[in-house]
Amino acid sequence: MARDPYTVLGVSRSASDAEIRAAFRKLAKQHHPDRNPGDKKAEERFKEISAAFDILGDPERRKRYDQGEIDAEGRERGFRQWSHAGPGAEGFGGFRSGPGGPGAGASFEDLGDIFADLFGAGRRGGFASGSGYSSAGFGRGRDLRYRLEVDFLDAARGAKKRVTMPDGKTFDLAIPAGINDGQSLRLRGQGERGPNGAHGDVYVEIKVKPHPIFERKEGDIYMEAPITLKEAVLGGKITVPTISGDVSLAVPKGSSSGAVLRLKGRGLIKPGGARGDQYVKLKIVLPEGGDPELEEFVRRWKGAERQSPRKHFAKA
């Protein structure tokens, strides 16, 4: 596991960009393989220093590291990988393309400037011939970032999609069941090709479309179910939708609007494989346009006078 890049460069988390750059210059000059021929420890230390500068030398990648979005190796945290193919065609919305991978934190020109300063202008753009290191050699291709909009139920249940990128390239992807809105997925090695032949990655931010009935809260699903006055008073069975299909739900006798019933295990798959629940909030709906017979019954209903549903108002 890579060490904290701030520790590697010997700077504080509040260090300025200039301080980080100066620390990298000093350490790179000290441990560069050209200055330590045959020293494997120096070579490994130089690689570690370069990897740390790859993150902290780029303001955006540094910010993402500080926020916990990427780890000390520059890898996305909480990303899930896809595989398998599926029908249909989905288009990516442009998100952004950005640097990624070892050496991408600073541009190749910036690294050339640094090492020209360290080893002389004659080596600008690369290190000594035969060293196996060059400013471009540290950079694989850029990572590409996009946004993909998916239906609520596809995100909840998982789905197989064939997506087309802006350059016309297509990928067969599996959307993991229970993926969160804003979560990103990674396609390793599918980004731009770098000067050293290594490709960057493709990251896709998932945007989940809202659903007209369901609302998600972590691993649970919430919805509102309208019921008739008769169903509320006498109870009964109603059919309600879930993310995995319709189910029968027993409404208890004497249910009020706002009562919440639970359908155990009808929610989303959580980390570890357990399922969340679905919560159904009841809402009594009276006949549209009114019902003379019901109105007459309520007028003659003596029980209404014994009710005091707002008695708690006096305590407010």
From TrEMBL:
PROSITE patterns: DNAJ_1, DNAJ_2. One of its GO terms (molecular function) is unfolded protein binding. GO terms for cellular component: cytoplasm. GO terms for biological process: protein refolding. Residues 4-69 form the J domain. InterPro entries: DnaJ_C, DnaJ_domain, DnaJ_domain_CS, HSP40/DnaJ_pept-bd, J_dom_sf. The keyword Chaperone applies. It comes from the Bacteria. Keywords: Chaperone. This is DnaJ-class molecular chaperone with C-terminal Zn finger domain.
